[in-house]
Design brief:
The protein is mainly α and 135 residues long. The chain has a domain of 93 residues. The protein is built from five helices and no strands.
Length: 135
Amino acid sequence: MWFDPELRVGYRPRSSLGALARQFAQYGRWKRVVLALHPRSLRWRHFVAPAAVLGVVAGLIVGAWWSVALAVPAVYAVAVVGASVLAARSPGMALRLLAVYPTMHGAWGLGFLAGPPRGVVRRLRARSETGQDAS
């Protein structure tokens, strides 16, 4: 990594929850590509969002018959509320974060579970083996 103090990086927040969801779904999908090409970069935190998605969905489904299973979605909801309150600078921001955090976690997790578009990893591996730039 090269540090250049003259470098300027821009950031623009997404204009809607839908745009945020699309962005994070792509992050999750492409994380699978990175992990396929560089398996040693795998960390436990990469499984948190997919596990949360699976846990919340399973808890809601199983909770219809066995109420103890609702503990998983309930714990997630409490964690989101707590994080929203702690991170927010105003009550309005806390309310927005109540939607933003689940959108980010859910979209990233679903994107990770869906995986990359078909054939991407194979094509990138072939390019790297022939010495072509993977970009």
